[in-house]
Write a structure and sequence with these properties.
Elements: H1 2-8, H2 15-27, H3 43-87, H4 90-116, H5 125-151, H6 156-184, H7 197-204, H8 237-246
Length: 247
C-alpha cells in the first residue's frame, strides 16, 4: 500500500522498472576494443604499428591490383551486354551475360580467396573488411550473370544491379579508409615495404668505379720557361738628327 502511494505521487520506482533498467544496461553492447589512437602511441609503438601496416599494404596490393585490372575489362564486356538488351532477344542477351560472368568469375574468386587468406593487424581491420566486401560484391555480380544464363531468367540481372550497388559502397569505404590509414601512419600514395636506407642510397647514387675501370689521369705537361723579352732599343743619335733635319 505504501509502495503504491509512493508510485502514485511519483516518489518511487517499481521494482520491475529497476530490474528492467538493470537488464537494459546489461544488454548494452560493450565498447569495441581496438588499437589505441595514433596520437596516444609512443615512438616505439608507432614504429611497430607502422611496420605492421606497411606489411599488410604490401601483401594486399597483389589482389587489389588484380581486381582493379579485371574490373576494367569486365565493365567493358558488361557494357556490351547492356547495349544488346536494347535490340536483341532475351535468350541472346542471357547467353552473352553468362559468357561475360563465366570469363571473369575465376579472377575475382582467386583474388577473394587470396584476400581472405591475409591476416590483418588491428590497425587495418576497417580497410580489410572494405576490401573483402568490395571483391565479394564483384564476384557475386559475376555469379548473377552465370545464374541468369543457367536459369534463363532475365530477372537475375536485377541481382546484378544490386551487387554493383554494394560494390560501389564498399569501394567508397575502401578509398576513405585507406586515405585515413595512409595519413595516420605517414605512408606514401603508393606505399611499399621500404628497403634499408643504405640500399636506397646505393641505388640512388652512381656505382663506384674500381681501380681497373677508373680512367687514368693524364700527366700534366710542363711548360717551357718563357723567353725574356728583348729590351727596346733607343734610336741612335744620328737617326734623331736626321729626323730633325728632314722636318
Amino acid at each position: 500500500m505504501i509502495r503504491w502511494l509512493l508510485r502514485l505521487l511519483g516518489l518511487g520506482r517499481p521494482p520491475a522498472s529497476r530490474e528492467g533498467g538493470t537488464a537494459a544496461a546489461a544488454r548494452q553492447p560493450a565498447a569495441k576494443l581496438g588499437p589505441p589512437p595514433v596520437e596516444e602511441l609512443t615512438a616505439e609503438e608507432f614504429r611497430t604499428a607502422r611496420r605492421r601496416v606497411v606489411a599488410y599494404v604490401a601483401r594486399s596490393r597483389v589482389p587489389l591490383r588484380q581486381v582493379v585490372a579485371a574490373r576494367q575489362k569486365w565493365l567493358v564486356d558488361l557494357s556490351k551486354v547492356y547495349e544488346a538488351i536494347k535490340d536483341s532477344p532475351t535468350q541472346l542477351v542471357l547467353e552473352r551475360a553468362g559468357a561475360v560472368g563465366e570469363n571473369h568469375e575465376p579472377v575475382f574468386r582467386d583474388a577473394l580467396l587470396l584476400t581472405q587468406s591475409i591476416e590483418p593487424p588491428p590497425e587495418v581491420e576497417g580497410v580489410h573488411a572494405a576490401l573483402v566486401g568490395w571483391i565479394t560484391a564483384l564476384h557475386a555480380a559475376c555469379l548473377a550473370l552465370i545464374d541468369a544464363r543457367k536459369l534463363k531468367d532475365r530477372a537475375m540481372l536485377g541481382r546484378l544491379r544490386e551487387q554493383l550497388g554494394q560494390a560501389r559502397k564498399h569501394s567508397a569505404t575502401l578509398v576513405a579508409e585507406r586515405a585515413e590509414l595512409f595519413t595516420a601512419y605517414r605512408l606514401n600514395v603508393r606505399p611499399a615495404v621500404q628497403r634499408p636506407k643504405r640500399d636506397a642510397e646505393t641505388a640512388s647514387s652512381p656505382p663506384a668505379r674500381d681501380d681497373a675501370t677508373r680512367p687514368t689521369a693524364r700527366p700534366i705537361a710542363r711548360r717551357a720557361p718563357a723567353r725574356p723579352r728583348r729590351a727596346r732599343r733607343e734610336p741612335s743619335q744620328s737617326r734623331r738628327t736626321r729626323t730633325r733635319a728632314v722636318g
